[in-house]
Amino acid sequence: MHLAVIRRVVFSISAMHSLRYSSKLVSNTTPVVVRNSLLMQRRIFHNVNGSFINDSKITRNISLPKLFAKQIQVREYASKVVKVPALAESITEGTLSRWNKKVGDFVQQDEEVATIETDKVDAPVNSPYTGTIVELYAKEDDTVSVDQDLFKIETGGTPAEETTKEEAKEEPKVEKEEPKVEKEEPKKEELKEEKEEPKKEEPKKEESKERKKELKEQEKIPSPSPPKTDSKSATTLYGDREDRHVKMNRMRLRIAERLKESQNTAASLTTFNEIDMSNIIDLRNTYKDSIMQKHGVKLGFMSAFVKASVFALQEIPIVNASIEGPDGGDTIVYRDYVDMSVAVATPKGLVTPVVRNAHLLSFIEIENAIAELGKKARDGKITIEDMAGGTFTISNGGVYGSLYGTPIINMPQSAILGMHATKERPVAVNGKVEIRPMMYVALTYDHRLIDGREAVIFLKTIKEQIEDPRRLLLSI
């Protein structure tokens, strides 16, 4: 039987393409389909007779004998460079906080490859192609700019695991026979040595009586006590101590910058009041179960304070205004809408997502919006758009047990309301001392724009709305 063998295949292909070969045994006289790239110029097959087969077509069928026939496939790949995407308006750079993939990993289209940390949020970078990552152009903690080369991906192909499984199936199993090692019988001389018992040591001679007396006298003499250690040594007093130097992340740096900007720019002043929470607590306890069953949301105090603040902002519009312009501002901007910023604590810092058009929302709609924004913030999925804007801010330190505090204005806004913990305290009610659940509230405002009179009336209006929730429904 004459056997034909493919000895050599010569390809001419573009430098931007890589080739991959996979082979599979086929039956006798089974035609082999050879697929080539459109960029391929020539293919030459050489057999044992010395003749050549020159094929310029895209597909050619060749009959080969069994065992030597192979299916040759040329797969086409292209390398693509992915750049840093646009992060958000006015943000041109960020810090590469982590790589979620490494060189050699196979990724699907829209799968997250890296995370870039900006001043406000973490922005994911997704792969626009399906393929294998072949090169990374930046390291973690590097500063990267928009449109900068980030990584290279080789498009096409399949995950390495699938290819490995296919190749593993094709390879025939070869059983390896381990050479048998015959055990050598121990020699007679070795057995004799093992049987020999160790010689017993000769008993020592009995010590003299004088020597025994000396030993007894030495036992009676007390041994000197060890020196006392100083229990107040440096190690005992302070233990093992160390200083850790950790670089601030971008969000923390931005928070520090904005807070200092607020202190340096605004003429901040704080006024205080206290609120009897009895009626709003009764309202919440009466309807919280019904609201949970019907709307699937918890009824808290934040929605009531948002509604009360909206009413107060409409009554005192200067608190909802802001100063704009060069050199510290020369223009007052009044707004006929309320975008309420609600402070939310996250592991990386404080963020203030915005409840849009709060003046048009009901209690339930406000609670839904706050719950959704809070979850996104804690999960690290909050976006720049979620925090942009805002005309007034509410910060609730009471959830952490804060009794009293002065919040800092969230520039360029002009005021911020601080809520605190509700505590039972003795108060005078109609000439009698009663124990009531009380909350201290604080309003920090920019005295350049808001006078003390407006600030006090504003906070007093919120107090009246919360102490009598019927006002919230009747808008009085």
Automatic annotation (TrEMBL):
Q: Which residues cross the membrane?
A: none
* Keywords of this entry: Acyltransferase, Lipoyl, Mitochondrion, Transferase, Transit peptide, Tricarboxylic acid cycle
One example of the protein's molecular function in GO is: dihydrolipoyllysine-residue succinyltransferase activity
Q: Where would you say this protein principally sits, based on its record?
A: mitochondrion
Carries keyword Chloroplast? Answer: no
UniProt-listed InterPro entries: 2-oxoA_DH_lipoyl-BS (IPR003016), 2-oxoacid_dehydrogenase (IPR050537), 2-oxoacid_DH_actylTfrase (IPR001078), Biotin_lipoyl (IPR000089), CAT-like_dom_sf (IPR023213), Single_hybrid_motif (IPR011053), SucB (IPR006255)
The name on file for this protein is: dihydrolipoyllysine-residue succinyltransferase
Species: Rhizophagus irregularis (strain DAOM 197198w)
